[in-house]
Amino acid sequence: MINRVVLIGRLTKDPELKYTPNGVAVTSFTIAVNRPFSNHQGEREADFVPVVIWRRQAENAANFLHKGSLAGVEGRIQTRSYENNEGKRVYVTEVVADSVQFLEPKGAPSDGQLASRDNYSSGSQSASRSQSKSTQPSFEDPFAGDSKPIDIAEDDLPF
């Protein structure tokens, strides 16, 4: 049997971090994933999928993700049930994540659109490249030439 799911979407609210009585971290959040088609009115719909992640990844997700963050989730679908306060059986289907990938740079605006890489790079060379509307691709090697240290801000690193 195979039970694997991969989702990319945006968080609908800030992740909620809790600890079990044994001190194990667990974070839950809901991710909105756009459907690949439009409804009869021409509007795009989304599915809102509950996600649960455990241990160190749970702490990382709670510390670095927030409402609107673009994230990739890989895991498995799990169903469970419990009896609520009114005595009714409640069924829950959720993704138990093995891995959560942060798909935007730290501090990136969460406006629902992916931003181009040039918006987050530093230096005059990338700024001049994004301003010019040249149709020919640039084949310049940014690491060629002098062997001076590269000045990269910590916020520009993807990890």
TrEMBL record:
UniProt keyword DNA repair, yes or no: yes
One GO term describing the cellular component: nucleoid
InterPro entries: NA-bd_OB-fold, Primosome_PriB/ssb, ssDNA-bd
GO BP term, example: DNA recombination
Region (Disordered): 103-159
Keyword entries, A-Z: DNA damage, DNA recombination, DNA repair, DNA replication, DNA-binding
Claim: Protein biosynthesis is one of the keywords in the record: no
Gene3D superfamilies listed in its UniProt record: Nucleic acid-binding proteins
Molecular function terms, GO-annotated: single-stranded DNA binding
Positions occupied by motif Important for interaction with partner proteins: 154-159
Membrane-spanning residues: none
Record field: compositional bias (Low complexity): 121-138
Pfam families the UniProt entry points to: SSB (PF00436)
Known partners and oligomeric status: Homotetramer.
Function: Plays an important role in DNA replication, recombination and repair. Binds to ssDNA and to an array of partner proteins to recruit them to their sites of action during DNA metabolism.
PANTHER family documented for this protein: SINGLE-STRANDED DNA-BINDING PROTEIN (PTHR10302:SF27)
Protein name according to UniProt: Single-stranded DNA-binding protein
UniProt organism field: Sporolactobacillus laevolacticus DSM 442
Organism lineage: Bacteria, Bacillati, Bacillota, Bacilli, Bacillales
